[in-house]
Structure formats: structure tokens, C-alpha cells
Amino acid sequence: MVIDCHVHVQGNWGTPDDRMGYLLEYADRLGIDRLCVSLGTSRDHEPDMDTIRESNDMVWEALEQHDRYIGFCYLNPCYLQGSLDEIERCIADGPFTGIKLWVAMLCDQPNLDPICERAAELGAPILQHTWMKITGNLPFESTPYHVASLARRHPDVDFILGHTGGNWEMGYRIVADIPNVYCEVAGGDPELGQTEMGVALCGADRIVYGSDAPGRSFASQIAKVRGADIADDDKAKILGGNMQRVLGL
Amino acid sequence: MIIDCNANLGQWPFRRTAYSTPDQLVERLARVQIDHAWVTSLDAVMLKDVTAANEPLAEAVADHTQLTAIGTVNPKWPAWGSDVEACAEQFGMPGVRVNPNYQSWTLEEPVFADLLAAARDLGLFVEIAVRMTDERHHHPLVMVPPVALSGLLANALEYSDVPIVVANAKNAEAGSVARDSGGDLPDNLFFELSHFESVGGVQSVAENIGVEHVLFGTHAPYFYPEAATLKVFDECDFSEADLEAITHANAERLLAGD
């Protein structure tokens, strides 16, 4: 099974269902079976709770229409009680499986602890966007260092290191010794060597495939795994086996 | 038949590059059924005298019929005209590459027109590399913004008999030039697809700029060559005619000067 751990419902055309159907058509061409989906159309870096709920409702609608999607509940930890309420609504009482965090708050802050504690109780993995830009991060854009700090405080939560910090040569090294952090290959250029280095530093059991579609091409991102000089068994783990385990599928 | 119009040999100074020799690159590209590649020198990008890389590049590919060497020139370097002549006459290269951002000039400066005039006289195409790597991850002491494409269209129209290849451009950059042209790009202007992204992005860009302006390219071995082949053959739904155009016919037409 191939699982794309990082897909969005972006776009300003049609309904969320239209857009999700469109994505599935393209995913089929690359042999992708399941897609972890999060975020709505808002690109607000610090969304309020109304925007958060609207975003999750869009994903919810897609989940009801297509059983190949796996929902990741979008949160803004600046609204702690709202985030905990949204976890109850979407994960505990709803069809979502994981949590998605973007750029509203650095993820090593204390507000993240109650969220992680509830995630641990529910067995929900947390996908945290990370990047390390020499051109400058957004004010509250987390890096792998922030995820490392949080993951060490919550060893019973599985964290997916979104984009492995973009600058993956640094990202892998930062989390190499933290067993509950999974490094995701999504969202950067298809630079040869990315997957090989991840396997060498973190092990094939801790690398996961994701695309960041529709902004990124399914094809360019899955090429990082299909084109890697690694064992076929390791490719199978990265393309889906590891996420099956993380998601409890 | 697949012609890769954007491959590289040698080492990138900020990362050890796999498949950096002609034998290794040919083998790696053959894995994804790429038959032929135009190759430039990664070493040339950061050399001050970029032409020092041209003779070694020509020698390196001499015994490899699957590779065509593309020299690098810098029209801001003294006596650069002789370097362009050497690429054409001494090394038999069909084109030359420039890296304006690493060479500190813009497409709006007269040197670009001078280069196009020299290329026209020698029957060469000119290739512009918009970027080499993601600007967000550059070495902190060597931060190089992408090449601004303002000035490209006017010069392409002025030198309509010189093929111009834009390599490593993103969707929006190609789209911006197409928009400036009123949706009618000059026949001599081509965009290579290695950096086209988004779901179905290659097809979207091809529909936007015209499939006759799209060249197949991988940016290998810096990129996985599978990224380009999977984008074109698997993710997109091109007609046979469009696939022919993108994978080799446009490149052959460019070389023939048709």
C-alpha cells in the first residue's frame, strides 16, 4: 500500500469534493492508494478558530465522500481550548486520525503539551510543518529543532517531521536519535540523495513518503523514493509500510 | 526517444554529487530510458574563468555518443567572444549556457544582446539557467537569487533566429513570460521542464505556454531523473503527438534551426 502522508484541499475552484476527486485521479496515475489530507483553502498563517473549523469541515466533507482519504485535524495552538475542543470534535468523536500543525506557533511552546497529551491518549500522530530557510523563516515557523524538543517531551506520540526541515541534510541529523520522529520527504525539490541520506542516518523504518500536493507534483515527490538507491524492502516501508504502522491501519 | 536537455556533469561545490562522470550519468539516465542528454559542467558555475571547464567537458563526453556537451560562457568576462567561438568551432558544441545570477549580470543589460548576436553568427543556441538549487537552502555565504526574466522576451524577439532555452524555471516564471508575450511566445523561445511543479503541472504549463515551447529536462544528477519521467509519462495525460514534441521533437527542431 502506498500512503501519501501530506496532501491539502487547496484551490479556489469547485467544491472540496471536486478537488479531492481531481487529486485522486492523479494519485491513481502514480499508484498512490491512501492520502492524508489537511487544511482548507485559507492560507492565513495565524487562523482564528472559525477558520480552523471551516478548514476541518472541508476535509470532513472529503472524508465522507472518499474512503481513500485519511483526515489530519488542523489546529492553531495559540487557541489552546479551541484546539482541544477541535481534537474532540474531529478525532475523538469524528472521522479524523491525526493532527496537522503549520506556522501559527513554534511547536516547542507549552501550549503544545496538552495537545500532545491528548494525541497520545487517542493514538493520533502529529504532522508538524518545518523548514529552515537561509532566506528567513516565518515568525512562528518551526524547525526540526523545535520538533526535536517537543518529541523528547512526548515520547509516546509519533511526530511526522514535515519536509524534514526542507534543508534535509540538517533535518535528518537533528532528529536522528529521536525514535518517535518520522522524517517526511515531501515538499522540496527532488534532490538526488535525499532518501538515501535519510535511510543512512535515521533508518528506513523512520522515513515516510509525502508529496505536499497539489502545490507539489505527486510524481516529483514519489520519484525521491522510487529513484533512490535503496533496497526494495526499504522503499516499501517508506512508501506506505511505515505510515500504516503510525496510523494503526 | 527521449532527449534530456538539462543534465550536468562534475561536482556541485556545496554537495557531493553522485553519478558525476559520463559513464555513471549515461547509466543512470538509461535506467529511465533517457537516450541522450545535453550536459553542462557543474564545476563551471562557480569558476571565475568559467571557460576553463569547457575543454575538460568536451573531452569527457568525446567517447560518449549519448552525451552532447554544452559549454559555459560569461559575457562579462574579458574577451568572452573567443570563448563562444571555441565552443562552436573548437569543441563543436551546439549551444552555450550562461548563469547570469552567478556571473552578476541581468538579461536587460547589453551583454545579453551581444551574446545573442555572437551566438547567431556562430549558429549556437543560448541556454539560461534561472537557478541551480533552491534559494532557501543556499550556503549562507553564497546566497544567489534566481535570474529575473525581464528582458528575455524583447531580446528573443530581436534575435528571433537564435534559439533560447530557459532551464530550471518554475511554472510561474514560464507563465509570466508567456503572459507578457500576450500568449504568443516567439518560436525561438523554449522552457525546460525539470522545475515545473504542482499536480499535473507540466501539462498546465504546456497548455499555457504552448507545447511546442517545452523541452524535456531532468536537472540530473542533482535531481532524481525519475522526477521528470514520472511527471511527463505518468502524472500527465499527454497525447502521443505532445509526448513526441516534448521528449525529442522540439529539441531536434531547435537544433535544426527550423
Q: Main attributes?
A:
heterodimer, A: 249 residues, alpha/beta, TIM Barrel, eight-stranded parallel sheet, B: 258 residues, 11 helices, 9 strands
Describe the fold and architecture.
The complex is a heterodimer of chains A (249) and B (258). Chain A is an alpha/beta fold. Chain A has a single domain (3-247), classed as TIM Barrel, CATH 3.20.20. Helix content of chain A is 43%, strand content 15%. Chain A is built from nine helices and eight strands. Chain A starts with a strand and ends with a helix. Chain B is an alpha/beta fold and 258 residues long. Chain B has a single domain (3-256), classed as Metal-dependent hydrolases (TIM Barrel, Alpha-Beta Barrel), CATH 3.20.20. In chain B, 40% of the residues lie in helices and 14% in strands. Chain B contains eleven helices and nine strands. In chain B, the strands form two sheets. Chain B has a six-stranded parallel beta sheet, with helices on both faces. In chain B, strands 1-2-3 form a three-stranded parallel beta sheet. In chain B, helix 7 links the parallel strand 6 and strand 7 (164-167). Chain B is globular. The two termini of chain B are 19 Å apart. The model of chain B has no long low-confidence stretch (mean pLDDT 97). Chain A binds chain B through residues 22-23, 26, 29-30, 131-135, 166-167, 169, 188-193, 213-220, 222-224, 226-229, and chain B through 15, 18-19, 32, 133-140, 143, 195-202, 220-227, 229-231, 234-235, 237.
